[in-house]
Design brief:
By secondary structure, this protein is of the alpha/beta class. The protein is built from 18 helices and 16 strands. Helix 11 crosses helix 12.
C-alpha cells in the first residue's frame, strides 16, 4: 500500500472531530511543516481502531539530527495508546510566531514543545493550560532547582520541564595547556578569566579566540549574556512574582558587564557579530577556548568535527565548570535554559494531552531514543543517576552538569513583554559590542524597555 493510500485512510479516521485533511490543510496554509512519519498511523495495525488524536508541535521534528528519534518516540505512544499523533515540526526560531498564528486561526496544538519566554508569552494570551492540577507531587520533589519556576507565571504552571539544558562554562584543556595555563584549574573568577584571556590572546593565532560571546541580534543571545550580567552583580529586570517588573539597565553591575563585553571585543578576546552556531564551529575546530553552552554541545562537536565523534574524544579535549564569579556574586550562576512541554487551553482532551506529556518525560522509549541522544539532562532529577540511565551520564562533562552546573541555574524576569524587550536588549548588546558608549546606551535601553512594559 502506498503512502498516499495510508494518508487517505488516515483522512477518514477522525469521526466526530476535525478531519486529518482539514487539519493538514489549515496547518499548511500557515506554513507549518508536518513531519512525514506523522502522516501515517505509525505503529498501529491496519484494522485497529484509532480512539483519539492529538497534535504535537515541536522543533525536534524540524531538525535533521533529532527528527527520526522523536518520530520513534511518538510511534511508541501511538502504538501503546491507539492514538493518532499529528507530528508538527516547526523550526526553532519560528516556534513562537507559528504557535501564535495557529491559535489565532483556531488550530489547536494539543501539546507544544517550548523554551525560554514562550510559556509566558502564550500563557498570557490564554493559549496554555495551567498544569498545576496535573503534575504529581512525586515529580515536584524530584526536579532540579528552578525547573518548574521557569514555566510558572503569576502562580500558573504553563509548562513543565522536558530536557534540562542550561549553559555551563566549557573550556578546551588542550589549548590551555599549550598556552602554559593550568588545564586542571580553569578560571574561577572574572579576574582569573581576564588574566587567562590575556595570555591566550598572545598565544593563539589571529583566527582563534579565548572566549565566545554571542552578540548576534537574536533573543537567544540574551540567554548567553544573562550569566555575565548577574556575575557582575547586575539585575536590570526584577520580577516580584506577581507580574510587576522593575527595570534599570544602568545599575552598576549591569554597566560593568557591558563594559567588560566591549573591552573583550577591543582586546580581541571574543569575536564580534558571531552567533552561537558560528562559535560552536570555532570550538569544534579548536579556535575557541572558553564559551557558555549547553550539555548537548558534546554531540554538536561530534557532528562538526569527526575527531570528536565519541563522548570519550570530547571529554579528552574539553571540560565544563560553572560560570566564573565576579564582583557582584559569591556563587556562580547561569541562565535556566530548559526545553519544556505545554498543553493547549483549547485541547478537547487535556487528560490525553497530559498523558502524552507524561509519556514524553518518563517513558524509556523516549528517554533512550530521543532525550539522551539529544544531549540534555532528564527532567526527573533522579533519572539522571538511576540504574537504568546513569551509564549514559557517566562521563565527566555530564556529571559536572548534573552535580554542579544545573543547580546554579536561575530564570530571567520572563513575562508576556519579555520577548519584545529582548529585541531591544540584544540591539543594545550588539551596539555596545561594536563600540557605543556604554552608560548612555544603557540609559536609552532603560527608557525603551520601560516603554515596552508600560
Amino acid at each position: 500500500m502506498s503512502m498516499n493510500d495510508n494518508n487517505e485512510m488516515a483522512h477518514g479516521s477522525f469521526e466526530g472531530r476535525i478531519s486529518r485533511r482539514t487539519f493538514l490543510s489549515r496547518a499548511t496554509a500557515l506554513g507549518l511543516a508536518l513531519s512525514m512519519p506523522g502522516f501515517i498511523l505509525q505503529g498501529c495495525g491496519g484494522n485497529d481502531p484509532i480512539e483519539s488524536s492529538l497534535s504535537f508541535a515541536n522543533w525536534a521534528s524540524a531538525e535533521t539530527a533529532t527528527r527520526n528519534n522523536i518520530d520513534k518516540a511518538l510511534q511508541a505512544f501511538e502504538s501503546q495508546n491507539q492514538v493518532q499523533v499529528n507530528n508538527i515540526g516547526i523550526p526553532f526560531d519560528q516556534v513562537l510566531d507559528q504557535l501564535t498564528k495557529a491559535s489565532q486561526a483556531d488550530i489547536t496544538m494539543d501539546v507544544m514543545e517550548l523554551s525560554g519566554n514562550w510559556p509566558y508569552a502564550l500563557g498570557a494570551k490564554g493559549v496554555l493550560t495551567d498544569l498545576n492540577a496535573f503534575v504529581p507531587q512525586g515529580w515536584r520533589k524530584d526536579v532540579f532547582p528552578n525547573s518548574f519556576e521557569t514555566g510558572t507565571y503569576k502562580g500558573s504552571l504553563y509548562a513543565v520541564p522536558f530536557s534540562i539544558t542550561p549553559h555551563g562554562f566549557w573550556y578546551n584543556k588542550a589549548l590551555l595547556k599549550a598556552a602554559g595555563l593550568n588545564a586542571d584549574r580553569p578560571p574561577r573568577t572574572i579576574n582569573e578569566l581576564n588574566q587567562a584571556m590575556t595570555v591566550l590572546r598572545a598565544f593563539l593565532p589571529d583566527n582563534a579566540y579565548p572566549l565566545g560571546i554571542d552578540t548576534s541580534k537574536t533573543e537567544y543571545a540574551l540567554v548567553g549574556f544573562w550569566p555575565w550580567i548577574w556575575t557582575f552583580g547586575g539585575n536590570p529586570m526584577q520580577d516580584d512574582g506577581k507580574g510587576h517588573v522593575t527595570i534599570n539597565w544602568t545599575d552598576d553591575g549591569t554597566v560593568a558587564a557591558f563594559q567588560w563585553l566591549q573591552n573583550a571585543v577591543k582586546n580581541r578576546w571574543t569575536p564580534l557579530d558571531l552567533a552561537i552556531k558560528d562559535e560552536r564551529q570555532l570550538m569544534a575546530n579548536n579556535q575557541l577556548v572558553f564559551k557558555l553552552d549547553g550539555p548537548y554541545l558534546t554531540g554538536i562537536l561530534g557532528n562538526l568535527n569527526p575527531g570528536y565523534s565519541s563522548t570519550q574524544q570530547v571529554n579528552a579535549t574539553f571540560a565544563v565548570t560553572t560560570t566564573p564569579t565576579g564582583p557582584g556574586v559569591s556563587q556562580p550562576v547561569t541562565c535556566a535554559d530548559i526545553h519544556q512541554l505545554a498543553v493547549s487551553s483549547s485541547s478537547t482532551n487535556k487528560d490525553l494531552a497530559w498523558k502524552l506529556v507524561d509519556f514524553l518525560t518518563t517513558s524509556s522509549d523516549v528517554i533512550t531514543s530521543f532525550l539522551i541522544p539529544e544531549g540534555g539532562m532528564l527532567p526527573h532529577k533522579s533519572f539522571n543517576t538511576s540504574t537504568l540511565y546513569s551509564k549514559y551520564y557517566a562521563d565527566p562533562i555530564s556529571r559536572m552538569f548534573i552535580s554542579t552546573v544545573i543547580p546554579t541555574m536561575r530564570p530571567p524576569a520572563y513575562g508576556p513583554q519579555y520577548s519584545t524587550a529582548a529585541a531591544a536588549i540584544v540591539t543594545a548588546l550588539q551596539e555596545i559590542a561594536q563600540g557605543a558608549n556604554v552608560r548612555p546606551r544603557l540609559n536609552r535601553l532603560t527608557t525603551d524597555v520601560r516603554g515596552i512594559y508600560a
